[in-house]
Amino acid sequence: QVQLVEFGGGSVQTGESLGLACVHSGAPFTMYYMAWFRQVPGKEREGVAIISRDHITNYANSVKGRFTISRDNAKNALYLQMNSLKPEDTGMYYCAAKPCYASVCTLSMSPLNYDYWGQGTQVTVSS
């Protein structure tokens, strides 16, 4: 059974930086495409960034140029570096995993395509 545990998060001011980490266990990490999602109360969960097994990435337009997703396959870890944070980045951030058994899978930003989720970590950006 895959387990995902997020670390990081917290409260920062506009323009500051914050890093998140997610540790994956229970199955070979390299089988999984990994992603970060975020959600605020009353809104749907939205994709922030995704990374393939081969480190190909895709980002939501709202975070391009400010956020960087990365993974360390040797450490079974996923990261999200968030720079130039804005109040609209506030939300609960979730790490998610989807298995990819083919040579290439879709870099999907839809939460429906992900099978495993972490418990979430809160990010609050104050103006």
Report on the structure:
The chain is mainly beta and 127 residues long. Helices cover 0% and strands 50% of the residues. The chain has no helices and 11 strands. Strands 2, 4, 5, 6, 9, 10 and 11 form a 7-stranded mixed sheet that branches. A 4-stranded antiparallel sheet has the order 1-3-8-7, with no helix packed on it. Strand 5 (46-51) and strand 6 (57-59) form a beta hairpin. It is globular, with a radius of gyration of 14 Å. It starts with a strand and ends with a strand. 33% of the residues are buried.
Topology:
Layout: E1 3-8, E2 10-13, E3 18-25, E4 32-39, E5 46-51, E6 57-59, E7 67-72, E8 77-82, E9 91-99, E10 116-117, E11 121-126
Parallel strand pairs: 2-11
Antiparallel strand pairs: 1-3, 3-8, 4-5, 4-9, 5-6, 7-8, 9-10, 9-11
Large-scale geometry: globular
Mean pLDDT: 96
- Give the termini distance in whole angstroms: 40 Å
- Binned, the helix content reads under 10%
Count of DSSP H/I helices: 0
Quick one: how many beta strands? 11
Contiguous uncertain segments of 5+ residues: none
> Which sequence of SSEs, written as H and E, runs from N to C?
EEEEEEEEEEE
- Summarize the biggest pleated sheet: 7 strands, mixed
* Residue fraction in strands: over 45%
As a whole number of angstroms, the C-alpha radius of gyration is 14 Å
Helix/strand class: mainly beta
